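Appendix B, Record 12. Input sequence as logged:
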Amino acid sequence: MKKETFDSIINAKKVTDETFDKFSELKIDLFELDMFTAIWEAQDNLMQELLKEVQCDYLNWWLHENNMGNGLFNSGEPSVYKIDGEKIYTGKDLDKVYETLISIKK
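Logged structural output:
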């Protein structure tokens, strides 16, 4: 995956999260809209085409469960991701996340 594509995915996730937060404050549940499901499916399909299975799993985990380096489900608690028993970078530095992503050979 090119760095530009990675940056685009990260920016799309940030915009989506900000939009959800704004609507949640208004007590509007966007999860019920088919449009957002379609956007997530398209993003996931793109990542599956561009990445190997373990790379895709790591990026999905980092984006969603680790909430882009903010800890497991945005708890602020440090989280750990391992491949073959080896800890993988889980922080907020996007360059390091990208470097980690492309270094995964599986």
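The mean pLDDT is 86.
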